[in-house]
Input
Amino acid sequence: MKLLRVAVAFVTIMAATLTLSGTAQATPREGNKATEAVREILNLNPGSRQISKDSVELEPGVIVSLPPTDGADMGTHLTCEWQWLCMWQNKGGGGYKIRFFDCDRWYYLENWRMPDNRDWRDKISSIHNAQSGGSKGRAEFVDTLGNGAWHTVGHVNTQDGRSDLSKDMSSDGRNWNDRIDKVWACAS
Output
Protein backbone atom coordinates (compact mmCIF):
# COMPACT_ATOMS: atom_id res chain seq x y z
CA MET A 1 0.00 0.00 0.00
CA LYS A 2 2.87 2.33 0.89
CA LEU A 3 4.44 1.64 -2.51
CA LEU A 4 1.17 2.60 -4.25
CA ARG A 5 1.03 5.92 -2.38
CA VAL A 6 4.64 6.66 -3.32
CA ALA A 7 3.91 5.86 -7.00
CA VAL A 8 0.82 8.13 -7.05
CA ALA A 9 2.76 10.95 -5.42
CA PHE A 10 5.60 10.55 -7.95
CA VAL A 11 3.19 10.68 -10.92
CA THR A 12 1.44 13.74 -9.50
CA ILE A 13 4.74 15.58 -8.92
CA MET A 14 6.03 14.70 -12.40
CA ALA A 15 2.80 15.86 -14.06
CA ALA A 16 2.92 19.17 -12.17
CA THR A 17 6.62 19.64 -12.99
CA LEU A 18 6.11 18.96 -16.71
CA THR A 19 3.13 21.29 -16.87
CA LEU A 20 4.99 24.10 -15.12
CA SER A 21 8.05 23.66 -17.31
CA GLY A 22 5.96 23.98 -20.44
CA THR A 23 6.83 20.60 -21.92
CA ALA A 24 3.42 19.06 -21.31
CA GLN A 25 1.09 22.01 -21.70
CA ALA A 26 -2.41 21.24 -22.87
CA THR A 27 -3.12 22.17 -26.45
CA PRO A 28 -6.53 22.38 -28.11
CA ARG A 29 -7.35 19.08 -29.76
CA GLU A 30 -9.08 18.63 -33.07
CA GLY A 31 -11.78 16.72 -31.17
CA ASN A 32 -12.59 19.86 -29.21
CA LYS A 33 -13.06 21.81 -32.45
CA ALA A 34 -15.40 19.08 -33.70
CA THR A 35 -17.37 19.17 -30.45
CA GLU A 36 -17.71 22.96 -30.73
CA ALA A 37 -18.83 22.72 -34.37
CA VAL A 38 -21.45 20.09 -33.51
CA ARG A 39 -22.67 22.25 -30.63
CA GLU A 40 -22.99 25.26 -32.99
CA ILE A 41 -24.90 23.22 -35.57
CA LEU A 42 -27.29 22.03 -32.86
CA ASN A 43 -27.77 25.58 -31.54
CA LEU A 44 -28.35 27.10 -34.99
CA ASN A 45 -30.74 24.40 -36.21
CA PRO A 46 -33.64 24.01 -33.74
CA GLY A 47 -34.99 20.48 -33.56
CA SER A 48 -31.74 18.92 -34.77
CA ARG A 49 -30.06 16.11 -32.85
CA GLN A 50 -26.55 14.69 -32.67
CA ILE A 51 -26.38 11.15 -34.12
CA SER A 52 -22.61 10.54 -33.95
CA LYS A 53 -19.46 12.34 -32.81
CA ASP A 54 -19.35 14.29 -36.09
CA SER A 55 -22.88 14.16 -37.53
CA VAL A 56 -26.15 15.95 -36.81
CA GLU A 57 -29.58 15.05 -38.11
CA LEU A 58 -31.07 18.41 -39.06
CA GLU A 59 -34.48 16.84 -39.64
CA PRO A 60 -35.51 13.29 -40.56
CA GLY A 61 -33.69 12.39 -43.78
CA VAL A 62 -31.24 15.35 -43.68
CA ILE A 63 -27.81 14.85 -42.08
CA VAL A 64 -24.78 17.13 -41.93
CA SER A 65 -21.30 15.79 -41.15
CA LEU A 66 -18.19 17.69 -40.13
CA PRO A 67 -15.02 17.51 -42.19
CA PRO A 68 -12.66 14.86 -40.84
CA THR A 69 -10.04 15.99 -38.36
CA ASP A 70 -7.54 13.40 -39.53
CA GLY A 71 -6.89 11.25 -42.58
CA ALA A 72 -8.42 8.19 -40.92
CA ASP A 73 -11.93 9.62 -41.26
CA MET A 74 -11.54 10.86 -44.86
CA GLY A 75 -12.72 7.63 -46.52
CA THR A 76 -15.97 7.66 -44.59
CA HIS A 77 -16.49 11.36 -45.25
CA LEU A 78 -16.10 10.86 -49.01
CA THR A 79 -18.54 7.95 -49.05
CA CYS A 80 -22.11 8.59 -50.08
CA GLU A 81 -24.25 5.88 -48.55
CA TRP A 82 -26.60 3.91 -50.82
CA GLN A 83 -29.95 5.68 -51.38
CA TRP A 84 -28.61 9.06 -50.22
CA LEU A 85 -27.91 12.22 -52.19
CA CYS A 86 -24.69 13.75 -50.83
CA MET A 87 -23.28 17.24 -51.34
CA TRP A 88 -20.04 18.71 -50.03
CA GLN A 89 -19.01 22.27 -49.32
CA ASN A 90 -15.71 21.96 -51.20
CA LYS A 91 -14.58 20.25 -54.37
CA GLY A 92 -13.39 16.67 -54.11
CA GLY A 93 -15.72 15.94 -51.21
CA GLY A 94 -14.03 18.36 -48.83
CA GLY A 95 -15.54 20.54 -46.14
CA TYR A 96 -18.90 19.93 -44.56
CA LYS A 97 -21.13 17.22 -46.05
CA ILE A 98 -24.93 17.44 -46.21
CA ARG A 99 -27.01 14.50 -47.38
CA PHE A 100 -30.65 13.82 -48.15
CA PHE A 101 -32.67 10.62 -48.08
CA ASP A 102 -36.34 11.33 -48.81
CA CYS A 103 -37.54 11.44 -52.41
CA ASP A 104 -40.06 13.63 -54.18
CA ARG A 105 -39.65 16.82 -52.22
CA TRP A 106 -37.75 20.07 -52.44
CA TYR A 107 -34.95 20.66 -49.98
CA TYR A 108 -34.41 24.40 -49.52
CA LEU A 109 -30.79 24.89 -48.47
CA GLU A 110 -31.62 28.17 -46.72
CA ASN A 111 -33.39 26.11 -44.03
CA TRP A 112 -30.17 24.85 -42.42
CA ARG A 113 -27.21 26.69 -40.92
CA MET A 114 -23.52 25.85 -40.88
CA PRO A 115 -21.46 26.40 -37.69
CA ASP A 116 -20.51 29.92 -38.86
CA ASN A 117 -24.25 30.77 -39.09
CA ARG A 118 -24.30 30.89 -42.90
CA ASP A 119 -26.99 28.85 -44.59
CA TRP A 120 -26.20 26.17 -47.18
CA ARG A 121 -27.29 28.16 -50.26
CA ASP A 122 -24.51 28.67 -52.78
CA LYS A 123 -22.07 26.56 -50.74
CA ILE A 124 -22.03 23.30 -52.73
CA SER A 125 -18.93 22.34 -54.76
CA SER A 126 -19.22 18.54 -55.18
CA ILE A 127 -22.10 16.05 -55.39
CA HIS A 128 -22.70 12.31 -55.47
CA ASN A 129 -26.10 10.73 -56.09
CA ALA A 130 -26.19 7.24 -54.56
CA GLN A 131 -29.97 6.95 -54.74
CA SER A 132 -31.53 3.90 -56.32
CA GLY A 133 -32.44 3.99 -60.01
CA GLY A 134 -35.71 3.11 -61.68
CA SER A 135 -38.26 5.78 -62.46
CA LYS A 136 -36.64 8.13 -60.00
CA GLY A 137 -33.37 8.48 -61.80
CA ARG A 138 -31.78 11.84 -61.02
CA ALA A 139 -31.53 14.76 -58.65
CA GLU A 140 -32.25 18.32 -59.80
CA PHE A 141 -30.32 21.35 -58.57
CA VAL A 142 -31.79 24.84 -58.82
CA ASP A 143 -30.46 28.38 -58.43
CA THR A 144 -32.43 31.49 -57.47
CA LEU A 145 -32.08 34.24 -60.06
CA GLY A 146 -32.74 37.03 -57.59
CA ASN A 147 -36.00 38.14 -59.19
CA GLY A 148 -38.02 35.31 -57.68
CA ALA A 149 -37.49 33.04 -60.70
CA TRP A 150 -35.62 29.73 -60.54
CA HIS A 151 -33.08 28.34 -62.97
CA THR A 152 -32.21 24.64 -63.19
CA VAL A 153 -28.47 24.40 -62.76
CA GLY A 154 -28.31 20.72 -63.68
CA HIS A 155 -29.07 17.10 -62.88
CA VAL A 156 -27.01 14.23 -61.53
CA ASN A 157 -28.19 10.72 -62.42
CA THR A 158 -28.19 7.90 -59.88
CA GLN A 159 -24.81 6.41 -59.08
CA ASP A 160 -23.12 9.43 -60.62
CA GLY A 161 -21.38 12.44 -59.19
CA ARG A 162 -19.44 15.64 -59.77
CA SER A 163 -16.22 16.20 -57.83
CA ASP A 164 -15.66 19.79 -58.99
CA LEU A 165 -18.78 21.79 -59.89
CA SER A 166 -16.66 24.60 -61.33
CA LYS A 167 -16.12 22.30 -64.33
CA ASP A 168 -19.83 21.61 -64.98
CA MET A 169 -21.71 24.14 -67.10
CA SER A 170 -25.35 25.06 -66.75
CA SER A 171 -27.58 25.90 -69.70
CA ASP A 172 -26.98 29.59 -68.94
CA GLY A 173 -23.24 29.15 -69.63
CA ARG A 174 -22.18 29.52 -66.00
CA ASN A 175 -20.71 26.73 -63.91
CA TRP A 176 -22.58 24.96 -61.12
CA ASN A 177 -20.14 25.78 -58.33
CA ASP A 178 -21.67 27.57 -55.32
CA ARG A 179 -24.97 28.18 -57.12
CA ILE A 180 -27.34 25.57 -55.72
CA ASP A 181 -30.20 26.92 -53.60
CA LYS A 182 -32.65 24.04 -53.57
CA VAL A 183 -32.57 20.35 -54.42
CA TRP A 184 -35.23 17.98 -55.70
CA ALA A 185 -34.16 14.49 -54.69
CA CYS A 186 -35.15 11.59 -56.92
CA ALA A 187 -36.41 13.73 -59.79
CA SER A 188 -37.66 11.48 -62.58
